[in-house]
Amino acid sequence: MLKEMIEELDSGLAYESHDISNKKIIIRVKTKEKDKRCPYCGEISKKVYSKYKRIIQDLPIQGKTVLIEVDSKKMFCKNPECDKKTFVEVIACAEPKSRQSRRLEEKILDISKQVSSITAAEILRGMGIKIGKSSVCELLKKNRDPN
């Protein structure tokens, strides 16, 4: 079931393993493609600069917090014309640097547009989503309509 969930969330990720406790589910994944495209210039790179673990919170399952642990890579850009010498691989299910999946952000926004940020954070925590009032406010600001 978790393997299918990961495929649905992001077809570029491959399920590796998981751990389930009474309050959370940790799903370990890795990216499938070896070649990465520089998001700044489009050059293809195979040369890894470094590796790190990125934790992305997703929608809860049966009230349990779901954390997706991605073995992520920072790559060298081989294009001498590119302003960036390194780049982080893109994960389709989450914004760059975000700690929440896109679908979790949508759920947070849906709830927080109807109630105060304090109430939204309480409702979301009750569902198994780890979030505070300030994070709700930041997400609302980031997604505010400029008009």
Q: What can you see in these coordinates?
A:
The chain is α+β, with helices and mostly antiparallel strands and 147 residues long. The chain is 27% helix and 34% strand. It contains 4 helices and 7 strands. Strands 1, 2, 5, 6 and 7 form a 5-stranded mixed sheet that branches. The protein has a two-stranded antiparallel sheet with strand order 3-4. Strand 3 (36-37) and strand 4 (44-45) form a beta hairpin. Helix 3 crosses helix 4 (133-142). It is globular and about 50 Å long. The model has no long low-confidence stretch (mean pLDDT 93).
Proportion of β residues? 25-35%
Through-space gap between termini:
42 Å
Q: Give a quick account of the main beta sheet: strands, pairing sense, barrel closure.
A: 5 strands, mixed
Tally of alpha and pi helices: 4
What string, H for helix and E for strand, traces the elements in order?
Answer: HEEEEEEEHHH
Q: What is the subunit organization of this protein?
A: single chain
The helical percent reads: 25-40%
Total beta strand runs: 7
Gyration radius (Cα, Å) is 17 Å
As for the number of domains, it is: 2
- What is the mean predicted local confidence, pLDDT? 93
C-alpha geometry: globular
Content-based structural category = alpha+beta
Pick out the low-confidence regions.
none
